[in-house]
Amino acid sequence: MAGRFANCRAAKAGRLPITRAMPSPFASAAAHPPAISGGHSLSYVRRSPEDSLVRQVFVEQWPRLQRELREANDGSGLPKFITKAVNAFLDCGVISKGFCRLYCKTCKTDQLVAFSCKARGICSACDGKRMTELAAHLCDSVIGEVPVRHFVVTVPANLRYLLAWNADLRGKVLSAIMRALQKHYV
């Protein structure tokens, strides 16, 4: 199926080899970024996940950690969702693991943009992007122009694990918090 994302699908499937490193058309001073509404211009500078210390530690230690946990837990190891998230994190932003080729008709240049993992809680780049998008959505579409009071509740460290895995207890704690807040603010 041909279309504007055909190169993305082919790259993810491994059918488009990387033949050379492409310089960013928007990072150099000679290139003129295309203008968008409001007179702003687009720019993209590829991050270097390969240089991340956290990623380097995971690359070195992840296989050993998986092996040791399987041996210690009768072959079960970590839950599949954790393994999937860590493996996606290790591929996040790496051109050789999949990319989209974007073409600028104005500059007559193209740019490779690596796929992201979208894993929760492990990849700071994807978490930051998700938090920014959620904040914009809440401000623009949900909350609107109404007065809002924001509360942050901190739970003692020894109770956090229990609340994370016990839905009934979490519901009771939330009900107690809501009763306390309503007592003072309603």
Topology of helices and strands:
Elements: H1 6-12, H2 53-72, H3 80-91, E1 99-104, E2 109-114, H4 124-143, H5 157-165, H6 167-185
Antiparallel strand pairs: 1-2
Descriptive notes:
The chain has 186 residues and is mainly alpha-helical. It has 2 domains: 6-148, no CATH class; 149-186. It has helices spanning 6-12, 53-72, 80-91, 124-143, 157-165, 167-185; strands at 99-104, 109-114. The chain has a two-stranded antiparallel sheet. A hairpin with a 4-residue loop joins β1 and β2. The longest helix has 20 residues, at 53-72. The protein is flat. It starts with 5 loop residues before the first helix and ends with a helix.
In short:
The chain is mostly helical and 186 residues long. The protein has helices spanning 6-12, 53-72, 80-91, 124-143, 157-165, 167-185; strands at residues 99-104, 109-114. The protein is 47% helix and 6% strand.
Helix content: 40-55%
Mean pLDDT figure: 77
Query: Could you say how many structural domains there are in total?
Result: 2
Q: Number of helical segments? A: 6
Rg measurement, Å? 23 Å
Strand order of the largest sheet: 1-2
Distance between the termini: 58 Å
Low-confidence stretches: 1-40
Summing up helix and strand content along with how strands pair, one would put the structural category as mainly alpha
| Beta-strand content | 5-15%
Basic shape? flat
What is the total tally of β strands?
A: 2
Largest sheet: 2 strands, antiparallel
